[in-house]
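Issue 218. Parser rejects a valid record. Input:
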Amino acid sequence: MPSALDPLLQHPTRLTVLAFLGACREAEFGAVRDHCEVSDSVLSKAATSLEEAGYVAVKKGYVGKRPRTWLAATGEGRAALAAHLAELRRLVAAAEEAGARHGSAT
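Output the parser choked on:
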């Protein structure tokens, strides 16, 4: 049976970024970076990939005179995350069921 996992979300950093953003309206770049425990460049690359897919919106602005970047999950990104997580749950449930059947056969 083919998997419905989203190839873009199979990368741990991109999945973590979208999961974090899915739980809030928007977040400042530094907060996402710190949560994901990655460097600025790694988060920037992940955010760009997610933005190109339409999963994340990037907004640039200033706080005082300091430049800031905010990230937000889009509706499409939230739907993709939900579908990806549902497929992961389905895969785990199917594997557990198969393992239980196999274990009881021995």
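Fixed in the parser; the record now loads. The longest strand covers residues 56-63.
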